[in-house]
Amino acid sequence: xxxxxxxxxxxxxxxxxxxxxxxxxxxxxxxxxxxxxxxxxxxxxxxxxxxxxxxxxxxxxxxxxxxxxxxxxxxxxxxxxxxxxxxxxxxxxxxxxxxxxxxxxxxxxxxxxxxxxxxxxxxxxxxxxxxxxxxxxxxxxxxxxxxxxxxxxxxxxxxxxxxxxxxxxxxxxxxxxxxxxxxxxxxxxxxxxxxxxxxxxxxxxxxxxxxxxxxxxxxxxxxxxxxxxxxxxxxxxxxxxxxxxxxxxxxxxxxxxxxxxxxxxxxxxxxxxxxxxxxxxxxxxxxxxxx
Length: 291
Fold this sequence. Notes:
Layout: H1 2-15, H2 25-37, H3 41-51, H4 67-77, H5 81-84, E1 95-96, H6 113-125, H7 131-149, E2 155-156, E3 166-169, E4 172-176, H8 177-182, H9 184-189, H10 203-209, H11 214-234, E5 247-250, H12 252-281
Parallel strand pairs: 1-2, 3-5
Antiparallel strand pairs: 3-4
């Protein structure tokens, strides 16, 4: 009994949400690890060159010396709200799951994750800009590409992407639906030593997992929210036909079903970050973003 109580206590401690760490530091850093393993040596060298301008950013409290740092830097700096608070809306673009998907909605003035991925990619690719400006863009691009792959950064059911839905996670009580997909679900999905996600992927795997543009990735997350996240959390296929309770729970069976989905999204994010980095550092003219 004592061992069981200790185990529950430890689980509770691990699940307490850390402030301002969308999709969890572990998941974000894993996407960076995947990307780093799947870019060319030339691209890795160019990233290292940009990292030498870190001091010019004036964020000593938030390191930006590696691609892993880049994956979490935007969450770190926005804690200094007076300076970086304007970036808060860049981390998501929620679309109601009970309405048709519109890739241009909820993004006034480019203040959403899809627009900022495109913007950051263009800045990173512009060699006429100072290195520290391009480095900041690299960090935003890497982080936001991770964010857009977390389903509840796109799908919403009148609850701020699940933030307002108190949700038990197995034996762990009173988290919220958004945090579960941000943290413990993703962490469980990428922690299987028998099937590591950080590795070099084959051309066939990359063809199957990667590709597309930011609007496509947002649509994928919205569809997962609509077809799996909300129906599973509330045990109904009709998530739009009735009022959903503000309190729910994920059973162990629900969690097991969700893990492969979370794992695939982390893999996709990492490989798509790799593609963005390669194209940003590639010689030649930069194509206009898709609209």
